[in-house]
Design goal:
The chain has one domain (10-98). The chain is built from 2 helices and 8 strands; from the N terminus they run αβββββββαβ. The protein has helices spanning 10-24, 78-90; strands at 29-33, 36-40, 43-45, 48-50, 53-56, 59-63, 66-71, 95-98. The strands form 3 sheets. It has a 4-stranded mixed sheet with strand order 1-6-7-8, covered by helices on one side. Strands 2-5 form a two-stranded antiparallel ribbon. β6 and β7 (66-71) form a beta hairpin. The protein is globular, with a radius of gyration of 15 Å. It starts with 9 loop residues before the first helix and ends with a strand.
Length: 99
């Protein structure tokens, strides 16, 4: 727990502290935690609503005029790997980084 925020891992909490320092010195701007991205909109099939596929990143910020999205990973699950591919395809303008 850092700043009253509970993180999923010590690694993620440490990255948050590093990003906070970068924010303070002006190396990054607009730090956001847990930004959500819709990878596929919800739709209807055979009269049923199929839920949207969403990706919840760890951090988002602006650096040098670009939007950066970060995910702190220890274990890359199959679901994560699939969502990463969908994210990269849907948001090519965003600088995606794994830490």
């Amino acid at each position: 727990m850092v700043d009253g925020i509970t993180f999923d891992s010590k690694k993620e909490a440490a990255r948050y502290c590093a990003l906070k320092t970068m924010l303070k010195v002006g190396a990054i701007k607009e730090l956001t935690l847990q930004p959500e991205f819709v990878l596929q909109e919800k739709f209807r099939s055979d009269g049923r609503t199929i839920r949207a596929i969403k990706y919840l990143a760890d951090f988002q910020y602006s650096q040098g005029g670009r939007i950066v999205v970060e995910d702190v990973k220890g274990m890359k699950t199959q679901v994560y790997q699939l969502k990463k591919k969908l994210f990269l395809n849907r948001f090519p303008e965003i600088d995606f980084r794994e830490v």
